[in-house]
Amino acid sequence: MIRTAIKGIGSALPARIMTNADMAKIVDTSDEWIVERTGIKARHIAGEGETTRTLAVAAAQKALIHANMTASQIDLIIVATSTPDNTFPATATMVQADLGITKGAAFDVQAVCSGFVFALTTADALLKAGQFKTALVIGSETFSRILDWTDRGTCVLFGDGAGACVLEAIEGTGSNEDTGILATKIHSDGRYHNKLYVDGGPSTTQSVGLLRMEGREVFRHAVGNISSVMEEVTALAGIKPTDVDWIVPHQANRRILEGTAKKLGLDESRIVITLDKHGNTSAASIPLAFDEAVRDGRIKRGQLVLIESMGGGFTWGAALLRY
What we know:
It is built from ten helices and 13 strands. The strands form four sheets. Strands 1-7-6-4-5 form a five-stranded mixed sheet, with helices on both faces. By secondary structure, it is of the alpha/beta class. About 55% of the residues are buried. α7 (about 215-235) crosses α8.
């Protein structure tokens, strides 16, 4: 059986760090208010010359080094983003060109904060089908460029960054002891599209638009949807959620992470949390957190890792893998 293994991982963050104290200078808020409601203390904000494309390339280069591979070995590039450099072509094609790759395929996936899980699921299916042997899956965002900086309910939440992983198709036995992705599950429900959305677009306003969110409604759906899909994906692999070594969640809100852990009876010490210094980086948040936990030695080879997310659409999903 073909399994999709993570061979390397990397991340990139803009140089500028915006603390909650900095945020309080431009909008009616405070460090105490933000930390109490979200757990966020700071976030990185893209500056001049820093874009979704440049961050994606930087993260990809680090992932290739970590995998001990060269760009010429990559067959497929999928970039998960809701903040592309251009409406078209896909940011992934620009990343492909910047890395000097002239073979295979490159395209974007747009599922907002669930983008990385959707992209990983897509790459896993294509590698298992034999279409490609290797892939770069990247989550990259510059959400600061679509924020309403007068809306304290949203602008304090988001940051910019990118994370990437190098995938390779390998032989497995078909058991849950295999290295690689063991199970994935993704969902969407468009009835709630107006709970978290951007109020612009080429076909409607001929503009980019700004992010709008009904925070309470998103929170209400998040805990239920996330805990449900985590149970689904672990059941597919024949294990219990409590058997997982690490959970690397989408970094949206500390209360959502705590609520999900409580609902599933999970120890919070096994949850990788980086939102305090990164904020919500949408599709980049999972690979950013995954990279940090690998680099600092928490996540080790052979361990079971569960990733999960929920985003606008609504979209949500999870993947279980043995790193």
